[in-house]
């Protein structure tokens, strides 16, 4: 589905990445469009936007900067918040330009979520297997 960019909000305090580089997308999106949909969840924002961005901040930011009206999106309304956070963190781990410090923070955050989700019956070895 396509969602209006103005209907999407970003929880900046919860985002793992603070600095994002979008120059490559500013060149490719006008030529090919947004090839991979962003991921959103139906969660009202501070300005009554109906969708919260879970994954795809670079695509969202580049599309906004290019003045596009909408963006392809997948809706993850059926997943619990912990699963949504893991998806966001794992997507960032797959980025080649993610600093090692941010990789460590993401892995630790994923581990903590899985540790709590599994009633403290979780270890780093299982986290490593989980994220590949």
Describe the structure.
The structure is a single chain. Helices cover 44% and strands 16% of the residues. The two termini are 30 Å apart. It has helices at residues 23-32, 57-65, 81-93, 100-117, 124-131, and strands spanning 2-4, 8-9, 38-42, 51-55, 70-75. Strands 1-5-3-4-2 form a five-stranded mixed β-sheet. The radius of gyration is 16 Å and the shape is globular. The longest helix is centred in the C-terminal third of the chain and has 18 residues, at 100-117. It is an alpha/beta fold and 132 residues long. It contains five helices and five strands; from the N terminus they run ββαββαβααα. Helix 1 (23-32) crosses helix 2 (57-65). Strand 3 (38-42) and strand 4 form a beta hairpin.
Order of helices and strands: EEHEEHEHHH
How many individual helices?
5
* Strand segment tally: 5
> Whole-number radius of gyration?
16 Å
Structural class: alpha/beta
Share of residues in helices: 40-55%
What general outline do the C-alpha atoms trace? globular
